[in-house]
Amino acid sequence: MQTLVLKPDGQALEKAAALLRAGELVGIPTETVYGLAADGLNQQAALKIFEAKQRPADNPLIEHIAHMDQLKELIRGELPEQARALAQAFWPGPLTMILPKSQRVPQAVCAGLDTVAIRMPSHPVAHALIEKCGLPLAAPSANRSGRPSPTRASHVLEDMKGRIPLILDGGPCEVGLESTVVELSGDKVRVLRPGGVTPEMIEAVLGGVWVDESVLKPLQPGQVVRSPGMKYRHYAPKGSLTIVKGAPERVAGRIAQLYDEAVSQGASAAILCMKQNEARYGHRRVHPLGQRPGLDSVASDLFDALRLMDEQKVERIFAEAVDAHGLGLAIMNRMGRAAAFHVLDADRGE
After folding, report:
1. How many beta carbons lie within 10 A of that of residue 247, not counting itself?
2. DSSP code string of 132-183
3. How does pLDDT run across 62-112, given as a tens digit for each residue?
4. Cβ burial, residue 18 (10 Å; 0-12/13-18/19+)
5. Side-chain-facing half-sphere of 166: CA atoms under 13 Å
6. Is the pLDDT of residue 229 over 70?
7. What own/partner pairs with CB < 8 Å and gap ≥ 24 does 6-12 have?
8. What is residue 42's three-state secondary structure?
9. Distance (Å, rounded) from C-alpha 226 to C-alpha 186?
10. Phi, psi dihedral angles at 202 (to 5 degrees)
């Protein structure tokens, strides 16, 4: 199969919409990461996503909508008041809500669960395509399962060339991390996957929120995957990734030691650090995360950096931890899973 990469002009959007209505897959830009889109009401199209990504069948997909009226065909019953408040505050945007599913939602989309994950993207290309199709679009990240998520069309092509007919190139993604996923159950709102909408932002709207314990540690054997992004090792580069936490000076010293040990053993190594800490590592190969102040820059750069490590064939990667609050929780969630939760504490001499 030939994979075309097109700028999302009117003709390309028409082509993409026709492919999606015919049950094919299209790589599309969103504000979070690039998605691998299919007709969200078509079981066979959804199954193609799992085949193209080599994605485990127990990992549910997210339905993407362009307006609130589309909720009626996706959810069972009325929209809960908490969900309505969150939609008013954060839609369109990087927030996914898990709600009771209707009979119209294919089982493949929900991985056999009785709930469906839904969000309304803010990216103009994604929004326009959903409108043009007249369909909700099921769209996980457009990468091979387990690989770093794609934040550029070139990343999608790297993983999906020959597997899908079309990629719409909307430029680099703004947020750079997948959406926040919240589960609404009774009076509780629980964050299953952190993202650009932080727990603190949700709490400001609802007055209370719980963060699932699996956010910063692996699922236990037999635990149900209730949301995308909960698998043990995810977003991973080909080289091994080690995260080091603690006081900045101790972290830098421990990472430098680990780096030097790796190089002395003949391995290629690199360091992922905050821009302001770059000088701490001297002559060593360093890739600063974020070219602007603030964690939003770190978040938008993370997956790009992990893919760069693969391009450079880096075998051992050592990364500074960030404070796991606000957007830092989402960054540490992605880094933790990319590292299979291999985290050392420099303050404890690990």
Report:
1. 10
2. HHTS-EE--BSS-TTSPPPSSHHHHHHHHTTT-SEEE---S-SS-SPPEEEE
3. 999 999 999 999 999 999 999 999 999 999 999 999 999 999 999 999 998
4. middle
5. 23
6. no
7. 6/166, 6/167, 6/168, 6/169, 7/168, 7/169, 8/125, 8/128, 8/129, 8/168, 8/169, 8/170, 12/166, 12/168
8. coil
9. 16
10. -65, -40
pLDDT digits (tens, 9 = 90+) for 169-203: 999 999 999 999 999 876 779 999 999 999 999 99
Residue keyed to tokens 């993604």: 173
Cα–Cα distance, 62 to 32 (Å, whole number): 13
pLDDT at residue 224 is higher than 80: no
Amino acid at 161: K
Q: Which residues pair with 39 in a beta bridge?
A: 137
Q: What average pLDDT does range 325-343 have in this prediction?
A: 95
Whether pLDDT at 292 is above 80: no
**CA distance readout (Å), 293 to 9, 233, 298, 313:** 33, 29, 9, 28
Categorize the per-residue pLDDT at 214 as very low, low, confident or very high, splitting at 50, 70 and 90.
confident
Burial of 278 (0-12, 13-18, 19+ CB in 10 A): middle
Q: What is the per-residue pLDDT across 247-280, written as a single tens digit (0 to 9) for each?
A: 999 999 999 999 999 999 999 999 999 999 999 9
Residues 323-328: contacts with CB within 8 Å, 24+ apart?
324/216, 325/200, 326/198, 326/200, 326/295, 327/196, 327/198, 327/295, 327/296, 327/299, 328/295
Q: Are 181 and 160 in contact (CB under 8 A)?
A: no
Q: Is the pLDDT of residue 19 over 80?
A: yes
Q: Are 349 and 342 in contact (CB under 8 A)?
A: no
Residue 138 near residue 46, CB atoms below 8 Å: yes
